[in-house]
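pasting for ref
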Amino acid sequence: MITGLDAAIVGHRRWALRRWFRSGAGRYYHRAGHPGVSSRVDQAFYALIDPALRPICRQLHAQGIGTTPSCEGHFHGHDYFRERWEELLLERDSILGDGLPVVDSESGESFLFRQPDHRIPWRTFNHFYRESMRHQATGYLGILVPSRRVLLQARLHTLRPRAGHLRVLADARRGRLLGGALFHVLVTPGDPDDLTAQWHRVAEWVGHALAGRHSAG
């Protein structure tokens, strides 16, 4: 049994400091807890990662570099969010009643989320839709480089892209909490084709940095 999970949308740069749980319908719930940083390599884990991010995460994990909870970004329409809203209401009823089965996204451990005072954070569908639309097109990946890999940290920082809809931000404070150097990769494209192109740029940046790891990290 588990309680205290939240369905609210949180800022991308806070994702690594939340513990995430996935329902059978694919909705994510979260709560404060152990930081969500992964270097897992099993197929079940990679199946949960968005396709555009999968090869980047594989590259990083193969070199012992952790990644945080992530999302490639999406361009869903009104009907998609209406379906998600209906699922959210059904899940709320389960949480208030017999409980909602959820799975820890990092460990794969199963829980039953049951809480008699659970509330969803939006009053109406329109509130939910507007907030979801503001966040959905932003893609995000957090990269955590171990503290001992000082030269690789410097290489990632030096080579990071600085143009257009792609930003890479270093976060020293949250990095210290997680035990390394944290880089926030944020993609805010205008359409799906641009989204794909931007994640290709991220893959190239990561590949170039890792290729020089013997001399630079």
